[in-house]
Design goal:
Helix content: 10-25%
Oligomer: single chain
Number of strands: 11
Largest sheet: 11 strands, mixed
Number of helices: 4
Order of helices and strands: EEHEEHEEEEEHHEE
Distance between the termini: 30 Å
Structural class: alpha+beta
Radius of gyration: 18 Å
Strand content: 25-35%
């Protein structure tokens, strides 16, 4: 976290690359996290007295890498959060799935419930207490060696959503031993938030940031991601 990768910064927002296996914000583990790293960067760079402000407006699971935006002012945080609620954020992911779905493209809609005791999420009925609606679109871009490269457009931001919904159709994310069971392949979780599109909270400019997953690493190296 000493080498914070900044994709964009202005007076209102800072867009950074979240490494895999780093928490996006403080949690019970007490491990280093991206939010504190951004605050430390702002404090050091601008010689701020006391704690620097950085607003967390969306999250990525610890094992997931990719693009994240933080607000540098409370006004920007409020406006970005409103975009999140109104659907103004577009979050796209690449995932490598074990196997291939029956359809090359489609929409997955489920109700999910989180078990806070063991930090797992499962598909449930709409009437179950704590059930939350989850929706995503997927499209299979390539298939090699029993693995599918999927592009995913996330409509809701539920905990572990992509992992749980793809496992529910028997195509778990590569490396997901928690939800994939025997079908999952051991390795680093192959889930990457590669594209983030939103409107600048102050200028109104339409912004999009893209970072591809690590192409030299398995299983990403199987696919020519830049051409899909």
């Amino acid at each position: 976290m000493e080498d914070l990768i900044i994709l964009h910064e202005d007076n209102h927002i800072i867009v950074v690359l979240k490494p895999q296996n780093i928490a996006c914000c403080p949690d019970e583990s007490g491990d280093e996290n991206l939010l504190d790293a951004v605050k430390n960067y702002l404090k050091t760079t601008y010689n701020k007295q006391g704690n620097a402000y950085a607003g967390l407006v969306h999250r990525l699971d610890r094992p997931t890498g990719g693009v994240m935006v933080f607000a540098k002012t409370s006004k920007a945080a409020a406006r970005l959060s409103e975009q999140m609620r109104s659907g103004g954020f577009e979050k796209r992911y690449f995932a490598v799935l074990c196997g291939k779905p029956s359809k090359n493209k489609g929409t997955l809609e489920n109700y999910l419930r989180k078990n806070s005791v063991n930090n797992t999420v499962y598909v449930c009925t709409q009437t179950e207490e704590g059930a939350k609606f989850a929706s995503l679109d997927y499209e299979i871009k390539d298939f090699k060696d029993g693995l599918s490269l999927a592009e995913i457009n996330l409509h809701t931001g539920r905990t572990h959503q992509i992992r749980v919904q793809t496992a529910a159709i028997n195509t778990p994310v590569y490396g997901d031993m928690r939800y994939g069971g025997e079908k999952a392949v051991k390795g680093k979780l192959a889930l990457w938030a590669y594209s983030l599109r939103f409107t600048h909270p102050v200028t109104g400019e339409k912004l999009r940031f893209i970072v591809c997953p690590p192409e030299e690493s398995a299983p990403w190296k199987l696919f020519d991601i830049k051409t899909v």
